[in-house]
Amino acid sequence: MSRNEIRQFLLPVLFLIFVLLVWQLADYVFEIKRIILPSPLEIAEESWKKLDDLMKATFVTGLAALSGFAISICLGVTLALLFSISKLAKQSIYPYMILLQTVPIVAIAPLVIIWFGGGLSSVVVIVTVISIFPVVTNVTTGLTTVDVGLTELMHLYQASRSDLLFKLKLPNAVPYLLTGARISSGLTIVGAVVGEYMAGHDIDSRGLGYFIFMSNQNFQVEVLYASILLSTLLGILMVGLTALVGKTILSRWAYPLHQG
Description:
Elements: H1 3-30, H2 40-49, H3 51-85, H4 87-102, H5 105-116, H6 120-144, H7 148-156, H8 161-199, H9 208-217, H10 221-248, H11 256-259
């Protein structure tokens, strides 16, 4: 690990420690009411008591986010392939995808829960809805912005449509797929938490959204902060894993021009 990489890792950690110390000191000096802003130690103490429940909730939320993310990748790439092949399909379907993206997810979530019930399946659907659009738009761009010279060269050698797709268009679209996947990976946690929050106490598997909902209703502020923190860490983990997979596996498909 280079000195620059160590610096990029240590600076955010040191800043976080500084913020926590200032937070704890401010709570001690100004005697802030616990219901308004509990101290880091109070949050840690209450979280430790509910550690098992919070870890299970984190796993449930992560599972829903990962499942919806996988579906959005598969479905998004399929739709992008369809749009790149058929202009009629793109002109017919793409406007509705834009329309779906403009509708707030909190407005869609109740309908999804009514249709699919209050279980994990409805949360996965919400995650898929909120995370599919970046994949479709980026992969479609990658499939349709191939170098004209390379395309003409492939035609010169009488390449078939499948050769054009698998040897030219798909490798060109991989960097765009990675960009879309990184954007979507962060949105998956948002979709999962919103789905679990909207499902409330009726949900079968209790995720972090459930704990955020119940702790807010019962004024359990420490659990609320802990759930928000775990959701944030889960989002960072999703984005980090996506970037890692992109660098180690998928980037090998791309042209050297795009790999920098």
